[in-house]
Design goal:
It is a single chain. With about 240 residues, the chain is α/β, with parallel strands linked by helices. It is about 35% helix and about 25% strand. Helix 5 packs parallel to helix 6.
């Protein structure tokens, strides 16, 4: 799996990344990308980051032929959309069509809980995909949900509960890629709470609700970061 890093970094030109397997794989992989399509992604200039990540992962999974890849978008309350269903084939031809469906113009208010709603929808989607895979194959199924967003949300407590519930699902890994910018950086933000009428400040990332996450500020680091994430996931599942 270590060879996946130079493969992605070389823009997929190293076609002979793996030797042909002599034994059939005993595992089946499903990767679902959930991409934030909200206006805040546009305002923080993270939309291009997200489309780079979408393109890299979809092309890698398709070229390596290691499983299924799906894409959903979220942003407004009640607007989780399936852009590319798990199980549908992906190729370079339909890549531009996927990218064109992201406008980064969805709005939400402080009362909305778009990320929690997205996780609720994804949990049902992955459960359906799991049942479909179990009925059609004897292979052990491993699922990865990769959320790509700017990481700015106020619904931390509801997210924490939902994340814990999903992490208890066997064979499912939930990971978050936070696309950060120098302005209003996640690493510099602080959260405030009140006790006895007095404010208490903590680092925003100290209470980040996702156990597995990475913060990316430099677009040039994206290919290697994604490659490392996929490699580590494959290695984790290989030892399960």
């Amino acid at each position: 799996m270590k060879k996946i890093i130079p493969f992605i970094a070389s823009d997929f030109r190293k076609d002979k990344i793996w030797l042909r397997r002599t034994k059939p794989s005993v595992r089946k992989y499903q990767v679902l990308l959930a991409i934030d399509d909200s206006r805040s992604m546009y305002e923080r200039k993270c939309g291009h980051f997200a489309m780079e990540a979408l393109t890299l992962i979809c092309r890698a999974m398709a070229r390596l032929e290691v499983g299924e890849v799906g894409v959903v978008s979220f942003g407004e309350t009640g607007n989780v959309r399936s852009i590319h269903p798990l199980g549908d084939p992906f190729s370079d031809v339909n890549g531009p069509s996927l990218v064109s469906q992201f406008k980064f113009d969805q709005d939400n208010t402080i009362k909305d809980t778009p990320v929690a709603e997205m996780l609720h929808s994804i949990e049902a989607l992955m459960d359906d995909a799991r049942q479909r895979a179990d009925s059609s194959s004897q292979c052990q199924l491993q699922q990865l949900v990769l959320i790509i967003a700017d990481g700015h949300f106020h619904e931390k407590e509801s997210l924490r509960r939902r994340v814990r519930a999903m992490q208890d699902t066997p064979g499912l890994l939930l990971a978050f890629i936070a696309l950060d910018t120098a302005k209003d950086s996640l690493l510099e933000l602080q959260s405030v709470s009140f006790a006895g009428g007095k404010p208490s400040f903590t680092k925003y990332m100290d209470s980040f609700p996702f156990a597995f996450y990475t913060v990316i500020q430099n677009i040039e680091a994206l290919p290697r970061t994604l490659a490392d994430l996929l490699r580590q996931w494959f290695e984790m599942t290989a030892h399960d």
